[in-house]
Amino acid sequence: MTTAFAMTSWTWTVLVFASLATAIGLYLSERQKIYVLAHRDHVPSRFSDKIALSAHQKAADYTVAKLAPGNFGQIYAVLLLLVWTVGGGFASLDIVTATFGLSGVWTGVVFLMMFFLIGHMLELPLDIYTTFNVEAKFGFNKMTLGLYISDMFKQLVLMMAIGAPLGWVILSLMGGAGTWWWLYAWVVWTAFMLLMIWAYPAFIAPLFNKFHPLQEGEMKSRIEALLTRCGFESNGLFVMDGSRRSSHGNAYFTGLGNAKRIVFFDTLLEQLEPVETEAVLAHELGHFHHGHVKKRLIVMIMVSLAGFGLLGWLTQQAWFYTGLGVTHPSNHAALALFMLVLPVFTFVMDPVMSYFSRKNEFEADAYAVNHSDGEALASALVKMYEDNASTLTPDSLYSAWHDSHPPALIRIDYIEKRLADKA
Fold it and tell me: How far is 158 from 204, CA to CA, in rounded Å?
C-alpha cells in the first residue's frame, strides 16, 4: 500500500508541475500577444524618428506569429511526457531494445539513442513549420529543403557519434563504479562540456557553415585596435555565411583560451557600419571583461553536480520508476526519465536566469560605452531590432520571464545614461 501511494503521489506531482508550467507559459504568451497587438499601430515616441511604422508592425506581427507554434510546442511537450511515461512509451522501448540481445550497457546505449532519435523525429514537424512557414513568411528563412535535410542528417550523425560513446561511459560508471558513480560521471560530463567548447569552433561548426577570415579594411582595423585597447587575444576574426540559412544577423565568441574565435554573421556586416560593428564587438568583449562566460560555465558545472547527485539518489528509489510507467528499473531508464522530467520542475528558474542575464547585458553595454562609441552601439541595436523584427513593445512580465536581454527602450535609456555619465 505504501509503495502504491508513493507511486501515485509522484505521478500526480509530475502532472501537476507539468500542467502548472504549461499554464504559466500559455498565460504569459497570451499577455505578450495582447500587449504587442495593442501597441502595433504606434511606434514608441523614443524610436519614431528611427523606425518606420511598417517595420514596427512587421515586428509585432512576427512576434505574435512565433507565439502560436510556441504554444503548441508547450502542449505537445506535455503530451509527449505522458506518452513516454504513464502511456507506456518507455516500457515499450525497453522491450524493443532488449530483443537485440546486447550487453546491459550497450542495451542502455541503444535505448538512449532511440529515445533521442524518436524525440527528434516527433519534434521535426513543428520545426519544419516554424522554418518554412513562419520564418519564410516574414522573409527570414533562406534555408532550402535540401540544406535542411543535410543539416538534419549531420546533426543525427553527430548525435550518434558523440552521444553513444558518452552514454556508454556514463552507463558503465552507473553500473560498475559503486555508490559514488554520480561523482565520477559528473567529472566525465564536465570534461565533455569543456571538450565540446574547445572542439566546436574548429571541428563541428565548419560542418554546417563556411568561415573565412575578415578581410582587410576599415572594419578589421577598427576591430584589431579595439582588441588591443581591451587587451583581448583571440585565434582570429571570422565571417560566417549565416545568410545561407537566415537573414537574421548576429556575432559571437566561441572556444576557450587561445582557441577563442570572434565570428560575425555576414548578414550583420551588411546591416551595420564599421563603427557600429566595433561597438557591438565591444559589448561582447564586456562579457569577457566581467567574467560572464566563466561565471556561466561555473554555474553550469555546479548545477550539473547537483543534478548528478540528485540522479544518484533517485536511481535508488523504486517510486521514481514505477510512478512514471517504468516497471523494470534500469540505469538507462533512470537517465531518460531524469532528462524528460527535470524541465518540469526547473521552469521556475527561468525568470531568475533571465534576471542575471539581463544584468550581464547592462554591464557589457557599460563596458562598450567606455571602450567604443556608445552612440554607435545604440544605433546598431536599433538597426538590429528593426532588421531582426524584434518587438519594441514586449509585455513586461513575459519579457522578465523569457528574455535574456533587456527590452529595447530600457536598454537604450541605460546606454544614454552611461553616455551622460561619461561626458
Answer: 9
18: exposed, middle or buried (Cβ count in 10 Å: 0-12, 13-18, 19+): buried
Amino acid 311: pLDDT: 97
CA 265 – CA 276 distance, rounded (Å): 14
Which of 94, 276, 278, 284 is the catalytic position? 284
Q: Quote the pLDDT of residue 6.
A: 39
Whether 267 and 247 have beta carbons less than 8 Å apart is answered as yes
Q: What does the block give as the cell for 152?
A: 538534419
Active site includes 284? yes
Could you tell me which of 244, 249, 242, 240 has the C-alpha nearest to residue 268? 249
Angstrom distance (rounded) from CA 305 to CA 182: 8
* CB count in 10 Å sphere of residue 67: 18
What pTM was estimated for this model as a whole? Answer: 0.89
* pLDDT-flagged residues of the chain (< 70): 1-8, 257-259, 423
Residue-wise pLDDT tens digits, 149-200: 999 999 999 999 999 999 999 999 999 999 999 999 999 999 999 999 888 8
Q: Catalytic annotation on 135? A: no
Question: Distance between CA 166 and CA 337 in Å, rounded?
Answer: 17
- The active-site residue, picked from 276, 365, 386, 387, is 365
